[in-house]
TrEMBL record, chain A:
InterPro entries: DUF2271. Residues 1-24 form the signal peptide. The lineage of its organism: Bacteria, Pseudomonadati, Bacteroidota, Cytophagia, Cytophagales. This is DUF2271 domain-containing protein. It holds the Pfam family DUF2271. Keywords: Signal.
Automatic annotation (TrEMBL), chain B:
The chain crosses the membrane at residues 130-151, 172-197, 299-323. It comes from the Bacteria. The keyword Transmembrane applies. GO terms for cellular component: cytosol. It comes from Dyadobacter koreensis. This is NADPH--hemoprotein reductase. GO terms for molecular function: flavin adenine dinucleotide binding; FMN binding; NADPH-hemoprotein reductase activity. Residues 341-480 form the Flavodoxin-like domain.
Length: 164, 731
């Protein structure tokens, strides 16, 4: 077989595979404990959203929201666009906002098929009157990424995961 | 009008902040119910106070393997966070010793969250927070100026909680509740201000945990969690929260946040890795939040709710007071130099103006030219014939703010024509210096060569309309204003005339002679020597007042016959058995106090009348002296027998008589001059000095008394007058 054919075949297989995944409402998934350690900033509690980002860099799913008051969601600009375009019930995955210096441990659920498939996990953060960090932390959704400590660039000092 | 700097500040601050203050108070009342509503939940364990971490942590770890942290809230509820065996989120209140679930942590109450947002920032973000913070700061200033105003009003720190004079509802409760809630309000305002300043970064409350040297962490020897020394000595009650190690790796550790510091603990060995005390601003910040919200104590939260409600009442009552005060502003129809009647007012909070305005309006209605102003505005009055001074007393017998400059101006502007004056003092017997300033003004005026007293000084206790109307009636009689003045809408004096039977009367032959006449009221009525009998010689509005002496059950008057005297000619015509209509008026300001240790009775002419009655009632324990002045022995003859009997029966310890036209030709004042030390002794021993007779006698004696008081006692005469130790009833 020519290499060109191989590539086409692979592309078709991937496409089919993806289509199949898309149709299956929910594949097998794993729960992870996700710990966010904040920096020592002064001020109000930070609103943080954990999102699943697809290989093209687009939002695919909201994994967790730290911050209960909808009126502040617009300060998380990029995610808010996704949220308003594709409304989803996030009440089960919403918790309290986190203040400077604090730690928050939450459980997030990720489909096994998304791991090591080019997806990313994004942590974006905003504080009422302070700056907004679209990618405070963004880590590749790989086995390695889920086992190491990832430093943040904004209000988050670092993020860690562990299998539940 | 009469605004001191503190009152002005108090008002200006309140006016500039009341809208936001009202909003903050209203939301504050609602928010006080948040801690109260939380505390009634049964999530607080009985074991809370004694449990220590070495007991609690093993239990909770084995019961909740997915535990990530424990926190203790202001209600002393212990909250376990983590995940359950299925990996679902777990957030429950537990008993620290058994691990039993006491309740599930609910969502935050949206209503309270919404109200909190309004309270903190008016939903206006930073601008709103700034406004609310500024309002809190203004409230601090309002409270401080309010405390100073109470101190001024109550005359000092010691009398801070003494009785408050009641002017009207708004004023009274503004002060009464102000005293009670100033502490919680000051705390609310200070903590609110602090929290705002902190919010704007004026205090650095950030906290940095110490860096951990991960290379130095020991991975052994392993110890059991229940044997960790630090857990053994730390009580749950000291705890804010514990974060559990994220994994079993030695680099993960326990983080203990206590009330005052943060610790990290090696999860294998139990060693304390780092220990960092919280900075002071952070501790103050937490304390401020506790005090401001009442979250730590339900009773305090209730106190804060009351204090907030009180702020709303202050806004209402404060504006009521201000509006009342503004409505008392002076509106003059006539100019000062055109007016025959000058009314001078000394008032701290404006209430005396109410009485003054009533008189002012009634004089104008009667077709007179009258001018109303403050004592401080005293000047030369070209057309004045009468001066009326109505004044309150402020502080420790001081002048009210708008009368403080009167004394200087009185000397600066001598009046040209002769002027009759009358002083009405307003005050309350609740204070020691009753009407002291009014007495001072009266004494000052009496010393002016152009001024002559139309009446004795009158005092009005606690705004008594009866007392005021008594002055008004007497004054209008003397000033010959053909109308009955009264305190505005208040009814003029109730003239309850009653029939009096003439019992006997002494003979009178010629003008200038005095006679005694006795009445018996046909109806039973209580009266004392020193009270007044009003008679109506022409059966019209004209009345004449006589001081009475009570002899047995009878009223005795001493009257001097004047050729054209309306009253005296009328009385002289009466015979035993006649009946007249008259009115008995109480005059408690000139009663002999019961059980008084010493009394000096000073009189001239017919002023002896009340003393004749008082001597009759004297207790033998009282050291009593009578000083009386007559023209000559003939005038004294009328009283001689009765007085000499009193002298021999020792009711009177001293009888001193001066004749102005015979013998040594001396006056009462000259006898008193020799007995200066007796005067001083009587005043020091809480005795009283009573004067009855002509105003010129009173003037001379007052001058002498003032000298004795100043030189021998170091106090002013008005000091003793305000304490009812010097009583005067002259005409």
């Amino acid at each position: 077989m020519s290499s060109a054919f191989k590539i086409v075949l692979l592309a078709i297989l991937i496409f089919l595979g993806k289509a199949e995944q898309a149709h299956a409402q929910k594949g097998p998934s794993t729960k992870y404990k996700c710990m966010i350690q904040m920096t020592n900033y002064a001020g109000e509690g930070a609103y943080i959203v954990i999102s699943l980002i697809d290989p093209k860099g687009a939002y695919e799913k909201t994994l967790y929201v730290m911050g209960p008051d909808k009126k502040w969601y617009k300060s998380l600009k990029e995610w808010d666009k996704f949220r308003t375009k594709k409304p989803a019930n996030i009440s089960a995955i919403t918790g309290a906002s986190i203040t400077g210096g604090d730690r928050s441990v939450n459980t997030i659920e990720i489909e096994n098929s998304k791991v090591n498939s080019g997806y990313k996990i994004r942590f974006e953060s905003a504080v009422e009157d302070k700056e907004y960090h679209t990618k405070d932390v963004e880590i590749p959704l790989t086995t390695e990424g889920l086992s190491s400590k990832s430093d943040g660039s904004g209000f988050i000092r670092y993020v860690r995961f562990s299998a539940n | 009008m009469t605004i001191s700097i503190w009152r002005y500040s108090h008002l200006a601050l309140a006016v500039s902040s009341f809208l936001f203050l009202a909003l903050a108070s209203l939301t504050g009342i609602i928010l006080a119910f948040q801690p109260i509503s939380e505390k009634i939940q049964p999530y607080r364990s009985e074991n809370f106070d004694q449990a220590d971490l070495s007991q609690v942590l093993p239990v909770l770890r084995s019961k909740y393997p997915g535990i990530t942290d424990i926190s203790v809230d202001a209600n002393e509820f212990i909250l376990v966070n983590g995940s359950d065996e299925k990996g679902e989120k777990l957030s429950v209140y537990v008993d620290p010793l058994t691990g039993k679930i006491l309740g599930t942590a609910g969502e935050k109450n949206e209503f309270f969250e919404w109200v909190t947002g309004l309270h903190r920032s008016l939903f206006l973000h930073e601008a709103g927070r700034f406004v609310v913070g500024l309002t809190a700061f203004l409230l601090v200033l309002i409270t401080i100026s309010g405390i100073i105003l109470i101190l001024q009003r109550q005359r000092g720190v010691k009398r801070f909680f003494a009785k408050i004079q009641r002017d009207h509802f708004a004023q009274y409760y503004h002060v009464v509740t102000g005293r009670l809630s100033l502490i919680p309000i000051l705390i609310l305002a200070l903590t609110g201000t602090f929290l705002s300043l902190e919010r704007f970064g004026l205090f650095n409350t950030t906290f940095k945990s110490q860096e951990i040297d991960f290379d130095a962490l020991k991975s052994g020897p392993p110890a059991n969690i229940s044997d960790f020394a630090i857990f053994k000595k730390t009580k749950v009650s000291q705890l804010q929260s514990i974060e559990f190690p994220f994994s079993q790796d030695v680099e993960d550790f326990y983080t203990l946040k206590l009330k005052d510091r943060e610790l990290t603990v090696n999860q294998i060995t139990g060693e304390v890795i780092t220990q960092t005390a919280y900075p002071l601003p952070l501790i103050i910040s937490k304390l401020s939040l506790n005090l401001h919200t009442g979250r730590a104590d339900g009773i305090w939260a209730a106190v804060l709710a009351l204090a907030s409600a009180n702020i709303l009442f202050f806004i209402y009552s404060g504006f009521t007071i201000t509006l009342r005060r503004r409505s008392n502003r002076i509106k003059n129809k006539f100019k000062a130099d055109q007016s025959e009647f000058i009314i001078l007012v000394g008032s701290e909070n404006g209430s005396t103006f109410y009485f003054a305005s009533a008189i002012h309006q009634q004089l104008i209605a009667a077709g007179k030219t009258a001018y109303l102003t403050e004592l401080n505005s005293y000047t030369h009055y070209a057309a004045a014939k009468h001066i009326i001074v109505m004044t309150a007393t402020y502080g420790l017998g001081d002048a009210p703010t708008n009368a403080a400059g009167f004394q200087a101006k009185l000397i600066k502007y001598p009046q040209t024509g002769p002027i009759d004056f009358s002083v009405v003092g307003f005050g309350s017997h609740a204070y020691p210096d009753f009407c002291k300033f009014a007495f001072e003004v009266n004494n000052l005026l009496a010393q002016q060569p152009w001024a002559s007293p139309l009446l004795e000084i009158y005092t009005v206790n606690d705004k008594s309309p009866e007392q005021f109307n008594q002055w008004a009636a007497d004054w209008s009689q003397h000033a010959e204003v053909p109308t009955t003045l009264s305190a505005g809408p208040l009814k003029p004096r109730q003239q309850r005339k009653q029939p009096m039977l003439v019992m006997n009367t002494t003979q009178v032959h010629s003008n200038g002679e005095a006679f005694l006449i006795r009445f018996r009221p046909k109806r039973r009525q209580k009266f004392s020597s020193g009270d007044l009998l009003a008679i109506y010689p022409a059966a019209d509005h004209r009345e004449r007042l006589y001081s009475i002496g009570k002899i047995g059950k009878e009223i005795q008057l001493s009257v001097k016959l004047h050729a054209n005297g309306l009253g005296s000619t009328y009385l002289a015509r009466l015979k035993a058995g006649d009946s007249i209509q008259a009115c008995l008026l109480q005059n408690p300001d000139f009663h002999l106090p019961p059980n008084v240790p010493a009394v000096l009775m000073i009189c001239n002419g017919t002023g002896i009348a009340p003393f004749l009655g008082m001597i009759d009632q004297l207790s033998p324990k009282t050291n009593a002296h009578l000083y009386c002045g007559f023209r000559g022995e003939a005038s004294f003859q009328l009283y001689k027998q009765a007085l000499e009997e009193s002298r021999t029966s020792n009711k009177l310890n001293g009888l001193h008589i001066a004749y102005s036209r015979e013998g040594r030709k001396e006056y009462v004042k000259d006898m008193l001059e020799r007995d200066r030390s007796l005067i001083a002794d009587v005043l020091v021993s809480k005795g009283v000095i009573m004067l009855c007779g002509s105003l010129s006698m009173q003037n001379n004696v007052s001058t002498l008394l003032e000298q004795v008081c100043q030189n021998q006692l170091g106090k002013s005469l008005s000091y003793y007058q305000s304490r009812s130790q010097v009583l005067m009833d002259c005409y």
